[in-house]
């Protein structure tokens, strides 16, 4: 479902003229961006030097040098919206011969001088070009510029290639105080008055982003487990109706005030020796509710032998690559291959599985528990490192389920010695809760579940080896279990 299937038919007033994407603008910013961009948490190209930039689009959301919206007299700021492609050395990547360079969404504040309260947001001082003599900073730290974004969404503004849409069944009041969320994530989020949260995608690609597409589809079913999009911002580049020019830039959703992050909640209860199985069972029910709702609004497909052989081939290739990269994994590779071989054997015997749209990157950190005890699932973007087409493909629900099961294992290993019995109990409770809604217990399909758990653990090994070596023993413990005792935790 495209975001164009909106509930609103209102039109916005004529927009101001956008800034022309000039080479001079990017040339003046390039020395600053070379230093600043690689340091950002959401920059995907770490470890490779930035060799240059190209400007995809530039828009003045607030003209440089005019009073900022809502600001006191004499306080002047501009707001530039840029889509910039960062060029880096071409490297081999899975499924492609070269890396084309990622496109990033930047929101830059521009002032003559930066007040002390905005000092942490400093990007740098421009020496030449159209912004010469001005100070550039990360605009999301500036409440006045954050107000500009919310007002654009509220009024369904159209500015140059940028377009805001909204579901007019939801009111967006004026005067909500913004604050920048500080949690580390691959995107950026603004919270407005504990009423809404605006998620801004940093690395953007053409096409329908699942983080807007799926919650919009679920809103048709009034699914209470996923916050419904209230408004969104997109860029339409190129010819009208061209899917390659459609970029989803941000989504405004209700802020679940008082909700607890599933990962933090699990760690807190575990550290206190408190039982988590009731929460795990409720989360299983919530996951099944979302999966069931998705099958009501979006098509399902049947995976036959050819599709399953391709699935197994991909899992096996990821294992081989991981074993080459992480020597500690190599002793377990033969045992892990049996997980994929068992799935291939069932496919050869004629077994089929249903595939549907799923979350795609589900773990405890993507789940929020309200004070009432109800769970919500958030962040449907999928794994940002995967191509968009792959993230939007129908898949067995076992992939989401395996993600949560692995998350329980991670939480259990936050204690020393690891709380293995705690993880086992949570896994069982989650699967039982899922079965209460779905009518099918995931553990009754152990071959598929083991294959997805194994694939997830292999991914974790690579991630931890590259980014958090101290955590590498956590997925390796799972690898050891999955390679030597395939029936562990798989019977209802």
Question: What's the helix and strand layout?
Answer:
Elements: H1 23-36, E1 52-62, E2 78-87, E3 102-111, E4 122-125, E5 135-138, H2 143-154, E6 158-159, E7 162-166, E8 178-180, E9 188-192, E10 196-200, E11 203-204, H3 210-220, E12 231-236, E13 246-254, E14 260-261, H4 262-271, H5 277-297, E15 301-303, H6 305-325, H7 333-348, E16 353-355, E17 367-369, E18 375-377, H8 388-391, H9 398-412, H10 420-438, H11 446-467, H12 473-484
Antiparallel strand pairs: 1-2, 2-3, 3-5, 3-11, 4-5, 6-7, 7-12, 8-9, 9-10, 10-13, 12-13, 14-17, 15-16, 17-18
In words, what does this structure look like?
By secondary structure, this protein is of the alpha+beta class. The chain has two domains: 23-254, no CATH class; 260-484, Aminoglycoside 3'-phosphotransferase, Chain: A, domain 2, CATH 3.90.1200. 36% of the residues lie in helices and 18% in strands. It contains twelve helices and 18 strands. The protein has helices spanning 23-36, 143-154, 210-220, 262-271, 277-297, 305-325, 333-348, 388-391, 398-412, 420-438, 446-467, 473-484; strands at residues 52-62, 78-87, 102-111, 122-125, 135-138, 158-159, 162-166, 178-180, 188-192, 196-200, 203-204, 231-236, 246-254, 260-261, 301-303, 353-355, 367-369, 375-377. The strands form four sheets. A seven-stranded antiparallel sheet has the order 6-7-12-13-10-9-8, with helices on one face. Strands 1, 2, 3, 4, 5 and 11 form a six-stranded antiparallel sheet that branches. Strands 14-17-18 form a three-stranded antiparallel sheet. Helix 5 packs parallel to helix 10 and helix 9 (398-412) packs across helix 11 (446-467). The chain starts with 22 loop residues before the first helix and ends in an 8-residue tail after the last helix. The model is unreliable at 1-21, 66-74 and 92-98 (pLDDT under 50).
């Amino acid at each position: 479902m495209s975001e164009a299937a909106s509930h609103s038919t209102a039109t916005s007033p004529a927009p101001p003229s956008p800034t022309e994407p000039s080479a001079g603008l990017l040339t003046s910013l390039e020395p600053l961006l070379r230093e600043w961009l690689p340091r950002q948490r959401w920059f995907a190209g770490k470890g490779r030097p930035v060799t240059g930039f190209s400007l995809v689009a530039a828009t003045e959301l607030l003209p440089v040098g005019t009073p900022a919206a809502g600001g006191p007299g004499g306080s002047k700021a501009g707001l530039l919206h840029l889509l910039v492609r960062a060029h880096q050395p071409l490297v081999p990547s899975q499924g492609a011969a070269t890396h084309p360079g990622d496109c990033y969404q930047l929101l830059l504040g521009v002032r003559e001088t930066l007040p002390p309260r905005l000092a942490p947001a400093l990007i740098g001082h421009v020496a030449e070009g159209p912004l010469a003599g001005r100070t550039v900073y990360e605009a999301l730290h500036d409440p006045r510029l954050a107000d500009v974004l919310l007002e654009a969404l509220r009024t369904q503004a159209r500015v140059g290639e940028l377009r805001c849409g909204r579901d007019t069944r939801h009111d967006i009041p004026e005067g909500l105080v913004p604050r920048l969320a500080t949690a580390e994530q691959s995107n950026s989020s603004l919270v407005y008055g504990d009423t809404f949260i605006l998620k801004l995608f940093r690395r953007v690609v053409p096409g329908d982003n699942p983080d807007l597409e799926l919650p919009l589809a679920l809103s048709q079913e009034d699914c209470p487990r996923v916050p419904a999009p209230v408004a969104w911002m997109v860029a339409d580049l190129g010819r009208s109706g061209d899917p390659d020019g459609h970029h989803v830039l941000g989504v405004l959703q209700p802020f679940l005030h008082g909700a607890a992050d599933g990962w933090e909640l699990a760690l807190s209860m575990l550290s206190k020796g408190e039982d988590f199985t009731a929460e795990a069972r409720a989360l299983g029910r919530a996951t099944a509710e979302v999966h069931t709702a998705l099958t009501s609004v979006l098509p399902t497909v049947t995976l036959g032998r050819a599709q399953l052989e391709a699935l197994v081939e991909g899992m096996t290739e990821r294992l081989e690559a991981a074993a080459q990269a992480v020597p500690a994994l190599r002793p377990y590779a033969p045992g892990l291959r049996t997980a994929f071989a068992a799935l291939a054997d069932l496919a050869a015997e004629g077994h089929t599985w249903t595939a549907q749209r799923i979350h795609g990157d589900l773990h405890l950190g993507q789940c929020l528990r309200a004070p009432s005890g109800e769970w919500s699932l958030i962040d449907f973007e999928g794994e940002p490192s995967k191509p968009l087409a792959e993230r939007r493909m129908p898949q067995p629900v076992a992939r989401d389920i395996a993600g949560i099961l692995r998350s329980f294992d991670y939480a259990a290993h936050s204690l020393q010695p690891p709380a293995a019995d705690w993880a086992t109990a949570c896994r069982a409770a989650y699967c039982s809760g899922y079965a209460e809604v779905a009518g099918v217990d995931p553990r009754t399909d152990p071959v598929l579940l083991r294959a997805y758990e194994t694939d997830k653990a292999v991914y974790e090994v690579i991630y931890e080896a590259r980014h958090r070596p101290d955590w590498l023993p956590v997925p390796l413990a799972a690898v050891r279990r999955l390679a030597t005792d395939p029936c562990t935790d798989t019977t209802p």
